[in-house]
Description:
Blueprint: H1 35-50, H2 61-77, H3 89-113, H4 122-153, E1 156-161, H5 164-176, E2 182-188, E3 206-207, H6 210-220, E4 224-228, H7 237-245, E5 249-253, E6 269-271, E7 274-278, H8 288-320, E8 325-331, E9 337-343, H9 351-356, H10 368-376, H11 383-389, E10 393-395, H12 402-411, E11 424-426, H13 428-431, H14 440-452, H15 456-468
Parallel strand pairs: 1-2, 1-4, 2-3, 4-5, 10-11
Antiparallel strand pairs: 5-7, 6-7, 8-9
Amino acid sequence: xxxxxxxxxxxxxxxxxxxxxxxxxxxxxxxxxxxxxxxxxxxxxxxxxxxxxxxxxxxxxxxxxxxxxxxxxxxxxxxxxxxxxxxxxxxxxxxxxxxxxxxxxxxxxxxxxxxxxxxxxxxxxxxxxxxxxxxxxxxxxxxxxxxxxxxxxxxxxxxxxxxxxxxxxxxxxxxxxxxxxxxxxxxxxxxxxxxxxxxxxxxxxxxxxxxxxxxxxxxxxxxxxxxxxxxxxxxxxxxxxxxxxxxxxxxxxxxxxxxxxxxxxxxxxxxxxxxxxxxxxxxxxxxxxxxxxxxxxxxxxxxxxxxxxxxxxxxxxxxxxxxxxxxxxxxxxxxxxxxxxxxxxxxxxxxxxxxxxxxxxxxxxxxxxxxxxxxxxxxxxxxxxxxxxxxxxxxxxxxxxxxxxxxxxxxxxxxxxxxxxxxxxxxxxxxxxxxxxxxxxxxxxxxxxxxxxxxxxxxxxxxxxxxxxxxxxxxx
Length: 476
């Protein structure tokens, strides 16, 4: 692909949605949840505030810390931090109250038996336990209410995979009931779609080819595929590999509403009365040290280079006029779009050119200062703010525009695998010279090699090597 090559706009899969109706969201987003973390924070706060009732005989801080830790361990053992789909705070009350009472009994016994500690009065213990339960229930109610509201605002785009008659019946049932959290995008079936009968309203689109499925996943941000029946069915084999490469997680749903299905463990749930369960997901778990490194380094670098950013912004404003910051949609982890920030070094003729041209025409006619910013990669420094916000990481595959993500995913096997982790400012491909107009196939190979062999030390190594090549005159 040359710097002057242009491409046509992407095709869009038609959405045959029900006229005048909305596809009701159900089931929950496949993206990473913050709800378990918020539940953990609510329980920690309730436990700490519950000890306020012990103020006249405040126990040692070490004992309080052990008490809080015990509460969290007991709650985790009771499954109170499991995914929150379909849960109400009243469902957790018996387990919650029992674990809180157990923790307070242990605290009371420890304060009475350990040396150098004063026994806790029974009245203070009862008041602290009651306050703890009330605060825990109230905090959890707020968190679960926020979770339900988030599901309604941002439902998870989902595909139903299975025979069209059964999938159509399940889709209709999901639309009649409103547990919330899923937006049906299409039905994946190897059979040609049958036209609606006379007087019958069309439902969700039926996708019968691999290209249609890939386009639907990329353009709608599909993160979940619900398989009707057993995932081991031979009929699903043509679809599972492609959906797995596109980072979809899989759920198994029994479409027979009248059949008894034995319980298969605590991971099972229900959607509109259908028994379903998540299969081994495709999501890649990120080490907490990676995000901590991103926050620490991006915050320090933003403070350190802020004078440089200010000088570049003023120079561009005075020499090139308004519009110092260039904003462009890019694709990040799990295919989610975000707005990437750069200093504006060129001005595309129109939004279509910016979205679908690999490189802007006449780049060699840029003013000298814009060429300097691109050759030294100083125009990329604003992406430190993307890292600080969590849109990107310091190290990872470089983000690309949605059009090229779809095009390259169709052309290069494994390209979509790059989106298992957050995109980055630099990466293994960049320190190996794959910057600018270089081989997409090589970049894809290096990016996946980085993900497969990730370690925190490797991130530090890549950052150190990037620092030594920061002024390499190639651009990115």
